Amino acid sequence: MSETLSRDAEEFLSWLAVEKGRSRNTLVAYRHDLATYEAWAAEQGIEVHTATPGDLERHLADLRAQDRNPASLARATTALRGLYRFWVGEGTITVDPTVDVRSPKLPRRLPKALDESQVLRLLDSVSGTGPVDLRDRALLEVLYGTGARISEVVGLSLLDLTDGDDMLRVFGKGSKERLVPLGSHARMALERWLGPSGRQQMAPERFTRRTDAEAVFLNVRGARLSRQGAWAAVQGRAELVGLGEVVSPHVLRHSCASHMLAHGADIRVVQEVLGHVSIATTQLYTRLSQDHLRASYLRAHPRAGGVKDG
């Protein structure tokens, strides 16, 4: 099947890449889902811009008949919902046919997390003294050290560094403000980045926007580092140490929470640090920590293994 899309669908994918910082894998998957939908619509004689909720339900029913798994169906539904919402926002259409289309329910999966040796390998690999090296080391240390979301980290302004730099003020979902502890390694990396050899080398003589002048993290053009730019920096550093397939900013967030719990942190503390509204979200990490605890026990305790005959 051709992966060629209509111009309006291509604009949606470009918006996801540039404005939302979606990963290449996500964009490839959405392209496949949307190309499948447009090809199906053409076969059915349906104009995608005037498709009805019933048309979309029929398309999803056809996918189910092809034995698509729930995750694949959920992704296809999300891609369609995003496409039509984008078109409404752009004024391409006036009615969103996906409003009442529901995604299949998925079981809550345990989040992925690196083990501590992998995190150290990633962090220690960024040891250069150039401004980009200093920025990337600070970015990685802050992401792992605080468990903050990538959007929260790139949104940091200089005034969000509290006195003594022991805490960070971040703005989470819904612009909800919280203070996050800043560990010694993250604080040291930030100090180096904010020193004469780091941020000052990237800062232009005159900033284009005030929000850029206030930004903690800058790109090489002297503007605030975008979510997409930060994601690319993390991915690039991970690929250099053979972790490109498993590392993302969100994985560092998962790893922060999992490692805190493994070392005895109270679940309410982890909830507050990560900014989870519901304790149920944080409890996912408890199971992950328990699995790690059991695996460590089986490796370490001389009486934990299988009983030998004789």
Which descriptors would you attach to this protein?
DNA polymerase, domain 1, two-stranded antiparallel sheet, single chain, globular, 310 residues, hpI Integrase, Chain A, 14 helices, mainly alpha
Describe this structure in words.
- The chain is mainly alpha-helical and 310 residues long.
- It folds into 2 domains: 7-90, Tyrosine recombinase, N-terminal domain (DNA polymerase, domain 1), CATH 1.10.150; 116-297, hpI Integrase, Chain A (Orthogonal Bundle), CATH 1.10.443.10.
- Helices cover 56% and strands 3% of the residues.
- It contains 14 helices and 2 strands, in the order αααααααββααααααα.
- It has helices at 7-18, 24-44, 53-65, 70-90, 116-124, 131-146, 150-154, 184-193, 199-202, 210-214, 227-240, 249-262, 267-274, 279-300, and strands at residues 167-171, 177-181.
- The chain has a two-stranded antiparallel ribbon with strand order 1-2.
- A hairpin with a 5-residue loop joins β1 (167-171) and β2 (177-181).
- The model has no long low-confidence stretch (mean pLDDT 87).
Number of strands: 2
Percent helix, as a range, is 55-70%
Which homologous superfamily in CATH is the superfamily of the largest domain? Intergrase catalytic core
Biggest sheet strand order reads 1-2
Percentage of residues in strands: under 5%
Q: What is the top-level CATH class of the largest domain?
A: Mainly Alpha
Secondary-structure element order, as H and E? HHHHHHHEEHHHHHHH
Structural class: mainly alpha
Q: Into how many domains do the coordinates divide?
A: 2
* Secondary-structure arrangement, i.e. CATH architecture of the largest domain: Orthogonal Bundle
